[in-house]
Each structure stands twice: as C-alpha cells, then as structure tokens.
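Note to self: keep these together.
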Amino acid sequence: MAEFFSGVNLELAKLRAGKGEDPADIARTLAPFEGGKATTRVYVSRAQFALAEVLRAGKADEAQRRSALDLYAAALQDPAFDSHFGAEARQSRARTILELAEPGEELIRQAAADLQAAIQQGGSDAAYQGRWRSLYYLARMEMLQSPDRHAGLGRLEDGAAHALQQLGAFSDEQQLLHQAEQLVDVFEVLAAKYLNYGWNDHALSAVELTRAASVRLYSMIAEDRAEWNSEAKARWHEDRYPYWLKDEGIWKSTPESGIRIDDYFDDHPIGPAMKDLLRAHADVPTAFLCVFICELVPGLIVVSALLCYMIGPDEWVNKRWQWQPAEGDLALLRSDRYVPSGPFRQHLLTRVCDAGTRTLVGPMAEMIAESGARRLIVSMPGALSRLPVEAFPAPGGATDKPPSAAVTYLPSVRSGADLCHPGQRRTDLYLARVLVLGYEGDDMPEQAAELASLQDTWGGQVTVMPGPECSKKTVVQALAEPYDIIHVTGHGTFSELSPLESALHFCSDPGNDGRNLTAYDLLAYAALETHPLVILSACDSAVVADSRTNSFHGLAGSLFRVGARAIVGSRWPIADGIAAEIMKRFHRELRHSTRAPDLSLRHVCHQLRDEGQPLEYWSAFGYFGII
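Structure:
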C-alpha cells in the first residue's frame, strides 16, 4: 500500500503543478491495485475520484475533462465507494459533462441520470448536505436544454430551500462565510430567474441571503439575532441526525417536509429593511442600487440590477434591469491594475471608469435619472465594491463630468438597515466629539499640517493623540471612549491573501506589531459603542476582500463589525499632501455645513475635480456606511 499511496501522491502533485495530464500515467499507477481486496479497492476508487477532481479543475481542456469522466466511472464501479461517496462523485461527473464544449446527447442523459440519482441517494451526511448542488445543476441543465422560460425554476427553488438549510445551520463567522461562498450561485441564479417574472422583491431577498451574511452576525439587532440563533440551533441539530434515520424515512430534512423558498421570502420580506434604510437617508432623495452578476447558463454571463427608492411615506418601488456585459470589461473591472502608484495610474483608472459606465451603471442610467436620486447607495459584489462609482462618466460620451449624485457604499440592504437602528449615534456632527490619532515618522511630512488643521477646525471638541503616544494598547483604550468622529492619520496596508492582517501603522516601521492596529486586532479588542464616523487618512484603508458574498474583510469590515456607522477611507495609495488637503476641507465641511457627511465628502471631491486635480486624487476616498 505504501507504493500505491506514493504513486497516487505523485500523480496528484503533477496535476496540481500542471505538469501531468496523461491518463495513461494515472491508469498505470492504479492498475496493479484494481483487482485487490475490497479494502484496497475502496482506496483505489477514492484515489480515482481525487485524481478526477484535480484533473477537471481550473483551466482544464476538453481532453482532461473527458479523462476525468473515465476516472469517475471507474470509481463508481465499487459498491462501497458508491454507498458513501456516490452522490458527490455523480455531482462532479455531471458538472464535468456540463463543462464540455460538445457533450452529446448520451452524456447529457448521463448527467441528468447522475443528478437524479444524487438527489435520491442517502448513505452519508454529505449526500444530504450536498443535495442542493444536484438540484442546482439539474435546474441549469433544464434551462440550457429547454426554451421554455419556466424551465428549471422549480428545481432552482428546491435547491435554494436545501441551500438555505445549510446556510442557516451556522452562527460561527468563518463557517458561515465558507458556506455562503459555496451557496451564492444558487441564490443569485434564482434571483436572475425571478427577475424574468418581475418578482423583484423576491429576487432582492434571494441575493441578500448570502450578501454580507457574515457582517450581519455582528450588526443585526437583538430580535433578528435571537431568531437567527434559534433557527441555526434547530438546523444544526437537524443536520446532525444520523443519515441512516433519513435513509429509513424516520427523519426528513426541512425542505423535504414542505417549506418552500418563496414562503420563506414572504415570511421574511425585504421591504421593512429597505424602508428603514431609505428613511434614514431622507435628507435628500436617495436610491439603493444592488448589482449582482451570475452565469445564468454555461457561457451566458448576465448583469442584473435592482434600483429601489421611496415614492411615498410608506411606499417604495423596486425596478429591475438585466444585460450582458461587453467582452473583457468584467475582467478589467476586477483586475485592480489601476491601484499601484505610477505614471500610468491615471490612464488605467480612466479606462476602468469608462468600463464601469458601460458594464455596471450605463444601461440603467435613465432609470437612475427618473428616480431623482441625489444620493445613490450602492451594493456590488467582491472587487467591484472597490471601484469609484462616483467617478464613472455619464453615459453617451459626456466624459467631462461624473454623475451628480453622491455615492455611498454598503455591503447589503440588511446590514445597512442594522446600522440605522442604534439610537446612540450622533447625526448633528457639528457638535461632535472628535478623536485624532497621529503618526510618528519623517516619511509623512504633511501629517503635522493635517493635525494642526483639525485642531483649528474643531477647537475644544477635539482630542489629539500624537504619533509617539499611539500604540496598539493606547489606541484600543482610546477607541473605547465616547467619540462621534475618529480620525486616523498614518500608513495603511491591505493584505489580499489575508485581509484580517490589513493594518493601520502609527510609526515608520511596518513590522513593529506594538505600533500598528490590524483588522484582526479591531475584532478582538475594540468596541465602538457610540457608532462613530471613522475617517482613515491612510493608503488602502477602505480596500476590502474580494468576496462574492461581501464579507468586507479588511479594516473597513472590521470597523463595521465593532460598531462604526460609516468609514471614509482610500481605495489606493495616495500622497500625504493630497490626503491632508482633502481631510482639511472635509472636516471644515463637517464642522460648518449642514450637509450629511457623505454629501460633504462629495462636495470636497468635486471642488478638487473642478480645480483641475486628476481623477486619481479626487476620487481616492470613498464613503462606506450610513449617514
């Protein structure tokens, strides 16, 4: 057996490194063991399954996928393997068939049979927990094969009901986030399908099931939290009933016992949360824009948008639009090539903003104009939430000026509504209690002028902690005090691989752990009881994780989780002189004008634009949160 495992590990390593895809090599490794004892045969089948999974993954070509199909078939010949892993193997084989360029009728029938069998199969906990995936793939097959607009809807709803059961079984953030990232496709394809029927509210509810779910574990109000924990506990216990009880029909999972996903949406409507959010921003006409992107059927990428706004004291509308993005635009928008400093950033950023208009807001520009919105609250998935939507040029070639509406960013409707509930937050910011955290180092020569301007603006309302006094311990202690505005001057870093290691640095040595504050530190030690506006005058301070479910992990996401109502931060590195000028003007607006803080930031940025400052300067800072 040592020789067997050594051979299998070698083949796996070669496949993962992209150096081995010859099916003959795999067959030669496994052949000597295929006729062995039953226990050996199980090991062989599991190895065949693992090799097939690696072979079809990533940028596999047609030949590799067909080789994977042979390995799935070989693995499923073993009854013991089929009993315990058959559902997963059949799901994977069906998905591989759907990814073939020309599968043919016979393989299509095989995929349908595999998925039907996986739906019915018990024998393991995984078979029940993964049932949503079989229903989802089967729905996509029906949508692909049939021109009927109703094709696949029933399967999608059944799959979403099973997926909801899996999503609701976790109250731990990392488990919930992992599950949500797997389930997001079924909910967003269902939402796109609902839009074809004009069921806009249900579509938004479907998107909201996974969007910012991990953020809401921290932000939801007590009543919602009690309901979530109760449902999570019940579903957790239900999922842990032994599979043999389910096989015998002694216990059935929730979706099989009659709960429908549309009934769930009726019982948990999105309307109250939407109205709470819009009413909290009633100082000017406000609209909420939700954008989501999914592959409706293999090869068909669809952008869907929902625009919501109030049309009366207790009445709101939810309008929809769907379109296909231009080839290459989505890849450009997600590439982040415009982020690094350099002579080409202005050009790259202009290209990105043009693509953003074409791909994300241009197709529904007339609908936005009809809403009369002077503020647009935007929720976009993943890396798209990093884009400066306020800098997108108006459609139709009018590239001299961006849209006039202020743009505010939120992870989701429900997370924004949660932020609106705490009653302690101060809205009259001209009376704010202000905390300013400084920086120690000669590499930011303008920070002294920035601190002086803040002291001049706020006078006796401001408390300044100079850079030499700022350490992890003292900053955490200061954050516990009842401030309404917290301003941080310093260096910021964002970690793409580990967003919770993103940090604010209070000295020039980035490796000095005692003089920085990471996103993880905020979660572990900080609590912002007065729900302040947090202003981060630091590079990359508003960049968040590229998560389709908007986990918002990073400095901004951690601040939301510990109580901040809004964050102003930068999307890319910016010179300290430009940052100091923006902050000087912004604080003067907060202190002396009656505008909401997001409108004040928009006013300052437009001043800089009109004075001839380049796009990479005036659009560097964004407003994330509520007013």
